[in-house]
Amino acid sequence: IYSLLMPRDLQGEHILVTAGPTEEPLDPVRFITNRSSGKMGLAICKRAQIRGAEVTLISGPLKAEPPNGIRHIRIRTALEMRDRVLEEFPRASAVIKAAAVADFRPASLERDKIKKDGMEPTIVLTKNPDILAELGRTKRPDQILVGFAAETRDVLENGRSKLKNKNLDMLVLNDVSKPGAGFDCDTNIVRFLFRSGEEEQMDIMSKEKVADLILDRVIRLRSKTE
Ligand code: CTP
Ligand code: CA
Known about the structure:
Layout: H1 2-5, E1 14-19, E2 24-27, E3 30-32, H2 39-50, E4 54-59, E5 71-74, H3 78-88, E6 94-97, E7 104-106, E8 125-127, H4 131-138, E9 144-151, H5 155-165, E10 170-175, E11 187-188, E12 190-194, E13 199-201, E14 205-206, H6 207-225
Parallel strand pairs: 1-4, 1-6, 4-5, 6-9, 9-10
Antiparallel strand pairs: 2-3, 7-8, 10-12, 11-14, 12-13
Helix pairs in contact: 2-6
Residues 78, 97, 99, 101, 103, 128-132, 147-150, 162 line the site of cytidine-5'-triphosphate.
């Protein structure tokens, strides 16, 4: 009943959402990952679908189920996420990159399980490609690109430079040092930064509310691309 009262104001949009962590394997039984639960990305999927958008989710392992009726592509590594995102990108009218992509992966994947007898191993890491920056370099003018940033220090400066360097229309800036913000938490405290230079500071609120406010901004940005 509630959803019948909601405006289907995202009808016609095809929103590509990424969520959750990636897993970077070391050997057949071990991997490196991060604390992302995927809650923010899932909230965006849920609200976007209710508001009439077609939704494609590309995600690592999630701690909750995605809503029924959306297309869900499961990946594990950052490299797999990159391949699938680049494949889906041309069909998306907007991309919201909430995933916590691992910045580094083990430089080599051991074919056999690493054994504990012998010397203590050293893990050598290599950089993963920045998927969001790649989208920023190739996006069409009608595609709206929304990125996230998690920062613990020099929050505003870092956020502003990510917005610019990755050629985003909008950045959702998250100070993860604050209680009630960020990883594995039901609430968030964010600031929206826009290409135009405009900025909006939000109070602490549920991730679903943050999702709705992000989607409201996508609609506002859409009116400027038309
Ligand atoms: N991101 C990405 N590909 C990566 C790393 C990050 O697409 N290899 C995206 C995330 O999905 C997020 C945004 O970039 O939308 C910002 O992620 P964040 O970790 O805050 O920034 P980084 O650019 O990775 O910089 P750093 O971690 O050094 O602060
Ligand atoms: Ca990062």
